[in-house]
Phosphoacetylglucosamine mutase (Eutrema salsugineum), 580 residues
Amino acid sequence: MFLFDRWDLGASSFSPLSLSHSLTSAMDESQIASLLKSSELFPTPQSVKLSYGTAGFRGDAKLLDSTVYRVGILSALRSLKLGSSTVGLMITASHNKVSDNGIKVADPSGGMLSQEWEPFADQIANASSPRELVSLIREFVEKEEIAIGEEKKNKSAEVWLGRDTRPSGESLLRAAEIGVSSILGSVAIDKGILTTPQLHWMVRAKNKGLKATENDYFENLFTSFRCLIDLIPNSGKDKLEVSKVIVDGANGVGGLKLEELRESLNNLDLEIRNTGRDGGVLNEGVGADFVQKEKVVPLGFGSKDVETRCASFDGDADRLVYFYIPTESSTDKVELLDGDKILSLFALFIKEQLNTLDDDDKEGTRSRLGVVQTAYANGASTDYLKQLGLDVVFAKTGVKHLHEKAAEFDIGIYFEANGHGTILFSETFISLLVAKQKDLTQGSEEHKAVSRLVAVSNLINQAVGDALSGLLLVEVILQHMGWSVQKWNELYKDLPSRQIKVEVPDRAAVVTTSEETEALKPLGIQDAINAEIKKYPRGRAFIRPSGTEDVVRVYAEASTQEAADSLANSVAQLVKSFLG
Ligand code: G16
């Protein structure tokens, strides 16, 4: 009873006795005491409604202590639910401004937290008192049949923690550690500063019983990269017109990690800028989100780089876009090669290897290659992919949605236009490839094609989109093809597009259809948007509430840049007038 004497149960509908009884039915007293004591350290911020969002919780770092602490608890529970498998918890706000922070959870598979657990995450993040928090946890563990407390002390949960370079990261990581350890017997292991994809990769490897350190991650990257380089046909080797690539690290963790990797990459002429060491601010005028949305040159790049192949990472290095500054440019505009173009390059290369194999496939077991895009995909990219004869499917914004759909194919390539994506190989298909690799004659075209596919499956992060592994794959494919960035850009011509962020009092007032192409609420706005779209040849536009920033996003495309800009502006005006 002493446990509750200290707590003001206020206008609770149940008594301390009934609370004690109902809590202990799922958790013993020492577990309850542990949760109540630690949660006292992390009161929830007043009048803030927290929501799990597109990729976890995100917001002003000063308001996140209690949320991170509570997600620490959730991660430990997730580990216990899945037989003490390792779960990852990453402290990052990715592309957001430096004063923000956030949390992404890596499930034991290495993918994003199961969406079934998101409502629980929302509930505990918003619980207004320790008592309510404990009560919610008790209900949840009972429903999920998770045994916690004294009897679990010998079979603990394990949570690996990582953080990006944000100044608020270290203290938030301590909050996460306390959250994890408040589930008795659970262990939090601090893996230090990492990119988000590194942590996802390490969690996946650990749970598969593979070597799972950061060094193993690097070793895997350069071994598979070198293998692909060795498989480049001789005829293609000298064709690459521009061999140097310059990477914009967004003043975040990605540039720093690429520097570490560079030591082993002697086949790549690589220059890294915006590492954050020279006083640049994370994501400010730099990085993949800035370059992709604004289509302008990031800080640190300029006329000296005309026609050179350049790439940008985002703040936690899970997004990658390419760009170059055209010769004729008198402004700071860039030619952007976004996630759609990377997807197209990957699809072309994979298809080329599969064609070599499938021609030889006597049993007729042709592989299923599919691609997944979102409503943001440029219409021209979708036309191009269909013209390649590929299965193109659409998913809602958020890698968690794309990943799920890509996993339905033997090889599923998914990319968001913002540069977030990867290539998934099904386990069955990998086994088939490995068996085939053993059977085929070394040095034959078929053997080379299989070996390339196996190397791609090792190089490209199977857990989540990864700027480092994506960069290496783009680089090796360009060398394989003998293509410059300009040649790659000619695969198709993007329809002009524009994206705008609109600040509104309540972005949740916008409700969309599942594909996010139409707004169901506020009532009447979609008709007004449709009327605008009709005014523009090849016009297309949609709105959706962001799940990472407090804005409504507007996307528009049309046959000219002026028309796309004008359509986006008109739709933004509609958003303001309906929601302002
Ligand atoms: C996250 C998600 C991405 C999503 C992006 C923007 O990226 O992982 O899938 O496209 O947010 O989402 P929204 O438009 O809802 O703000 P990141 O790189 O910021 O973690």
